[in-house]
Amino acid sequence: MIIKVLGSAAGGGFPQWNCNCSNCVAVRSGTPGLKARTQSSLAVSRDGENWVLLNASPDLRQQLNATPELHAKPKFGPRHSPIKAVVLTNGDVDHIAGLINLREAQAFSVYGTDRVLSIVADNSIFNILAEPLVPRIVLPLDRPTPLSGAGVELGLTVEAFAVPGKVALYLEDEAAGPDLGTKEGDTIGLKVTDPATAKSFFYIPGCSQIDEPLGARLKDASVVFFDGTLFTDNEMIEQGLMPKTGGRMGHINMSGSEGSIETFSKLGVGRLIYVHINNSNPALNEASDARKTIEGAGWEVGYDGLEVRL
Length: 310
Ligand SMILES: [Zn+2]
Prior knowledge:
Elements: E1 2-7, H1 22-28, E2 41-45, E3 51-54, H2 60-65, E4 83-87, H3 93-96, E5 109-112, H4 114-122, E6 136-138, E7 145-149, E8 152-162, E9 188-194, E10 199-204, H5 212-218, E11 223-227, H6 235-238, H7 246-249, H8 260-264, E12 271-275, H9 289-296, E13 299-301, E14 307-309
Parallel strand pairs: 3-4, 4-5, 5-6, 10-11, 11-12, 12-13
Antiparallel strand pairs: 1-2, 1-14, 2-3, 7-8, 8-9, 9-10
Bound molecules: zinc ion.
Zinc ion binds at residues 16, 19, 21, 23-24, 279-280.
């Protein structure tokens, strides 16, 4: 199984178009130790020929151009794509808007929970990806589902599971109470398995808390790509960027007693890789204390183009 990080940044990317935080200013000016990053997506393949995207970011066109494995191959005729399926983990703009880039009458499958597929259905612009060419397939929770698309079996299964999180920003309902109208299936994690080798990894780009059931599920996993949005819960407030904590945005922070570094230290995971990293996160700077803390705890900071083979 080949896993490629297409985009390792959170929504907005790095740098973000309208942001003058110290990281964005530094990466724009080419300061050493900071790498630009596109928005959140992974690509996975068992055979190197047929691929599934885990989320479709607004930067997808740029990501495809940067990834030769995902280019159209002339030997397959005038129109072709190695992308046979897309699996969505929530309805955030950074995870679904890239579907629009996959128009032009190409067959593939879109997988998501009932909740996320209903967002796609409610926004008529996505009808540019019309069934039956682009079927929308409901992912059940807690059950491995074999992936296929365009008549090709991908030889991989994906198991979706609910994780603590929040409904997409543009669907928040303040009147619904503190959960903002969040329902099961709004945010999921994925376990992707190659049944032929029994190797697997987890992909959880959005998660507000590692509760007991999630910790039990991840215990002793070989590889986990995990939500690295913020280093501290209030960093966006402290930097004057916006008045929300990470918790309010549906994202756990890296540091602190409830953070991902501390929580994962007890889970025995083989390889831990942060993805979905917000531009405010000091760990984006390779010279920062935050980066040293992360790496000292055994984590890697994901970057665009990172390849993992299992
Ligand atoms: Zn910024």
